[in-house]
Design brief:
globular; Aspartate Aminotransferase, domain 1; alpha/beta; 13 strands; 4-stranded antiparallel beta sheet; 12 helices; Aspartate Aminotransferase, domain 2; 7-stranded mixed beta sheet; single chain
Amino acid sequence: MSRTNLHGGDLDEIARIYGIDKSKIMNFSGNVNPLGLPPSVKKAIAENVDIATGYPDVSYTALRAAIADYTGAKAEHIIVGNGSTELITGFIKAVMPKKSVIISPAYSEYLRILEQINCDVVLYPLDEERDFVPDIEKLPIDDSVDMLVFCSPNNPTGTYFTAEETAKIAERCKKHGCFIMTDETYVEFSDPSKHISAAEIADTYDNIAVVRGTSKFFACPGLRLGYGITGNREILDKINAEKDLWSVNVYAELAGKVMFTDRSFIKETIELINAERTRFYTELGKIKALKLYNTQSNFFLVKILDGRTTSREVFLELIKKNILIRDAENFPFLDETFFRFCILGHDENTLLIEALKNIFE
C-alpha cells in the first residue's frame, strides 16, 4: 500500500508519516457517521458497565429480535458476528465456491477470503461509461459460477442495485445454482425512497445472504458488531457450527439492542447525509475539472478530468491542511484520476469544498 492509499482506519500511521496531530485530522476517508456513537448507546454502556462480569446470551435472542424489527427480516433468519467481516468469511466458507464473481471495484476482503479457499475469482468491472451503474443483464452468471458477491451501495462508486433488481438477479442465479452475498454496509445512508435493501428478499430466496455492519452508520468500528440475513437454514447452521459461541461481546450485544431502536438518531443521520450530499453535488458540480458520480452512500467517488494533477497529488495537498481523503487508484479498475471522500459535519464539509475549489479552480 502506498502512503497515499492509507485510509481512515490508519490514523495513527498517517499522523506518524505526515507529522500531524491525530486529533486534528479531518477524516474524510473513514466513511463513518459524523454524528458519532448514538448518545443512547453511550448512556446504556455507562449505566451497565458491570455486565462484563457475565456472558452474552449464546443465542442472542433479544439482539436478533431488535435487528429483525429494524430490518423487516425474520429473527430466525438472522445471525450475528464479530463485525461484518467475520460473517463475510462465514458465508464464503459455508458455500465454499469453486468459482466466484465479484462486482468491482470493491472491498478487498472479498477477494482475499475467496483466494484463501483457492476459489477461482472473476472480477467483473462496473462500466465507467455507464457511470459505474451496474447492468444486471450483463452479469457473467452461468452454471460454472457458484457465488456472486457485490456491495450495494458499492464501495467506492456509491452505485447500487434496487431490491427489485436484486430479486431479478436472485431468480437468475437460482437457475444456475449460484449463491449471492450482498454487502449492505452503507445501505442505511441511502435515501429510503430508493428501496435498495435486500433484507426482506433474503427471507424469500434461499440463495441470497445480506451482510451488514454497524461500524459506519452507528459509528462504532471498535465494538465489532455485524449481522447477516438469509433464509437458507443449511448455510446458517454451517456458520453457527464454525463460529465462536460468544463472538459478539456483551457491550456490543447491549449496544445493538439499543441502537437499532434509536429512531431519532437514525432519522437525524439520514437527514444530515441527504442534505450534505445535495450540497456537495451543488458546490462541487460547479468545478469543471471534477466529476462526481451519483451515490446513495455517505461518500463520493470523484474523477479528475483536466489531467493537470493526480489523486496522489490531491491527497498530499489536502493532508497539509489536515484533510484526509482516500486516494482511490489502488481499487481494481480505477487509476490515478480517482479519489473518494465521505460526508462529515457541515463545517468540515465546507472546509473540504473550499480546499478543492482552491486546487481545481
